[in-house]
Specification:
alpha+beta, Calcium-transporting ATPase, cytoplasmic transduction domain A, Rossmann fold, binds adenosine-5'-diphosphate, binds magnesium ion
């Protein structure tokens, strides 16, 4: 608890005790009034100040003012009636403060949730310089510097291990609790914690471009993208509060005037002003204004702690309405870690063909490229390669040792006018052409991710009516994967532009109030990520483009997180709706009773604070 909160709690307790005592101590007259004024100031001075500041700054209609007017009015009525009855003013302030106190605690716990995520921010980097180590701020490190990271420290900047063996805890980034082993050559991501051995790391990015900075940016900006529910409430409060104030005034003034002028009975000013004031207390919209952003806040925080970064509550709202989920295949539903399972029709030695393939692929970040380079088993000599061109959805071409080399699928061979030999083996085929002549193909095979099938089943349970897989791979491979996983529809041999077209068709076919989610790994699918209602990029720890293009970022590459994201969003939205319903329902009932003179200020303040506390407690559930 912070100092301010402790002070507030102390004020609440002191006021409650002294006020309780006043029920037993027979002080009357001026002395009694003086005691109550002191009590009132102890509990309410900050509200009075804020209401006053609100008036000065022209922000008149906020809940502080409502409370200030209502309690001062109640006090004035008490003095006017002369019976020493000031309890209501104290009660309203006391419970209002109690409610605010609760709210504060709740917001804090929500923040702490996100703070757990924020804990990824590194404080320093230790850089090797002139034979010694120097501690510097992470943003002073340049690309290519060598850092030393001791066990227990955070990796400050993305890079590659050059020395040392250790395991890393990436749980703050991915929600994944199993440590990841790293050895020289492994890529490491800023924000993960070094667990066991001293590591030397050569940085591959500046701090501002590192994973950690991108994630922090994203989380910090999440609250600025507001959902429709939130915007609705802001507008609602802006209209609602003045209306309620006008109604309260009318309730206090019109009936007494009517009574004297037209009915010739006593105006009974006291009773009607009291009703007007009660009306004000009841109408305070704080439970709504507060609980809705808090629910989203809690939901986004809770998702973040599980490695699901949602860029704004608007996306959370959309996720909850998901009806169609479209997946990319390679790297999304399959591991994208291909093994070479055969080399056929090879005109050269198999090793030579693989070497050409690895060299041609040396600049690409496609899972196929990475796998071929891994199969080659050595660092490709980039100096032998020039003119590298990557043709999305087809493959690559390059000049190696003066020979024009092409590696890719049947489409690429057709584009280049090279006659190729079809392959009957199952798997993804990388055809190779050297100087325009076919020189064989490499068969590589991928495996379906272990959670892929379960993901589709979970999505069905979460109310998704259609699951689709899109891929640039051959029909045979695509259908094989689709059968294993159980998606409803599969489209193969698509170029990136065809994928956009498919998504557009699916957008047209989905139910009007349903949303379409596209899940990809961020490798040449940025246009689709942008076109879908919600673009989900997974394995953001690998690809940079993904974090920018997507609306939701999954920190590791488990497709199951898609179903989780939808589940969390649905729960959050349900809570928001519950809170709106509960608050408005109770308010309307109390307003009616208040106007009729049945509900007094006690009921009003209990209703207000009670609803607020319930709403806040309900909102916090969204984080779990
Ligand atoms: P997916 O839709 O499965 O994610 P892509 O659109 O990235 O696949 O690629 C489609 C197809 O294009 C691949 O199956 C492969 O045949 C070919 N291809 C793409 N990039 C490369 C590459 N770098 N090397 C070889 N083939 C590639
Ligand atoms: Mg892909």
């Amino acid at each position: 608890m912070e100092k301010e909160q402790k002070i507030k709690l102390a004020r609440i307790v002191i006021t409650a005790v002294l006020w309780g005592a006043m029920f037993f101590i027979p002080v009357t007259g001026i002395a009694r009034l003086a005691v109550f004024v002191v009590l009132y100031l102890i509990i309410g001075y900050d509200i009075l100040l804020e209401a006053f500041e609100g008036i000065i700054h022209g922000e008149v209609f906020d809940e502080d003012l409502l409370m200030a007017v209502a309690t001062i009015g109640a006090f004035a009525l008490g003095i006017y009636e002369g019976k020493g009855e000031y309890n209501e003013a104290i009660a309203v302030m006391l419970f209002f403060q109690l409610g605010e106190f609760f709210e504060d605690l709740a917001v804090d716990s929500g923040k702490r949730n996100i703070a757990a995520l924020m804990d990824i921010r590194p404080d320093f980097a230790r850089i090797e310089k002139d034979g010694g180590l120097r501690k510097v701020a992470p943003n002073e490190v340049r690309v290519g510097d060598t850092l030393t990271v001791d066990p227990g420290e955070k990796i400050p900047i993305d890079g590659v291990v050059t020395e040392g063996v250790s395991s890393l805890d990436t749980s703050a980034l991915t929600g994944e609790s199993l440590p990841r082993d790293v050895t020289p050559g492994s890529e490491v991501i800023s924000g993960s914690v070094n667990l066991s051995g001293v590591l030397k790391i050569k940085t591959t990015a500046e701090f501002g471009e590192s994973t950690v900075s991108k994630i922090l940016d994203l989380v910090e900006n999440a609250s600025s993208r507001k959902s429709r529910s939130e915007n609705f409430i802001t507008k609602f409060a802006r209209v609602y509060t003045p209306i309620v104030c006008a109604l309260a005034l009318a309730l206090a003034v019109i009936p007494p005037l009517v009574r004297t002028l037209f009915m010739s009975v006593s105006p009974d000013w006291g009773a009607w002003i009291y009703r007007g004031l009660t009306f004000l207390v009841i109408s305070c919209p704080c439970a709504l204004v507060l609980s809705i952003p808090l629910s989203f806040f809690a939901g986004i925080g809770g998702a973040g702690a599980k490695g699901i970064l949602i860029k704004g509550s608007n996306y959370m709202e959309a996720l909850a309405q998901t009806k169609t989920v479209v997946f990319d295949k390679t790297g999304t539903l399959t591991k994208g870690a291909f093994e070479v399972s055969g080399i056929h029709h090879c005109e050269l030695e198999n090793e030579k063909l693989l070497e050409y393939a690895a060299l041609a692929e040396s600049a690409s970040s496609h899972p196929i490229s990475k796998s071929l380079i891994r199969a080659y088993g050595a660092e490709p000599e980039r100096s032998r390669v020039t003119d590298i061109k990557e043709i999305a959805g087809q493959g690559v071409t390059a000049t190696i040792d003066g020979h024009k080399v092409a590696a890719g699928n049947a489409k690429l061979m057709n584009t280049l006018g090279v006659e190729y030999v079809d392959c009957r083996s199952s798997g993804t085929i990388v055809h190779m052409a050297i100087d325009g002549a076919y020189s064989g193909h490499i068969v590589i095979s991928d495996v379906v991710k272990p959670t892929a099938k379960q993901t589709i089943a979970e999505l069905k349970k979460a109310g998704v009516t259609k699951t689709v897989m899109l891929t640039g791979d051959s029909r045979k491979t695509a259908e094989n994967v689709a059968d294993q996983i159980g998606v409803d529809e599969v489209k193969s041999e698509l170029l990136p532009a065809d994928k956009v077209e498919e998504v557009e068709r699916l957008l047209g076919e989905k139910p009007a109030n349903g949303k379409l989610v596209f899940v990809g790994d961020g490798v040449n699918d940025a246009p689709v990520l942008a076109r879908a209602d919600i673009g989900v990029a997974m394995g953001a720890l690998g690809s940079d483009a993904a974090i920018e293009a997507a609306d939701v970022v999954l920190m590791d590459d488990d497709p199951m997180k898609t179903a989780k994201a939808i589940g969390i969003s649905k729960k959050c939205l349900r809570i928001v709706k519950e809170n709106i319903g509960l608050t408005i329902g109770v308010k309307v009932a109390c307003l009616a009773l208040g106007a009729l003179g049945i509900a007094n200020m006690w009921v009003a303040v209990f209703a207000d604070v009670g609803v607020m506390i319930i709403a806040v407690l309900n909102a916090i559930r969204a984080a779990r």
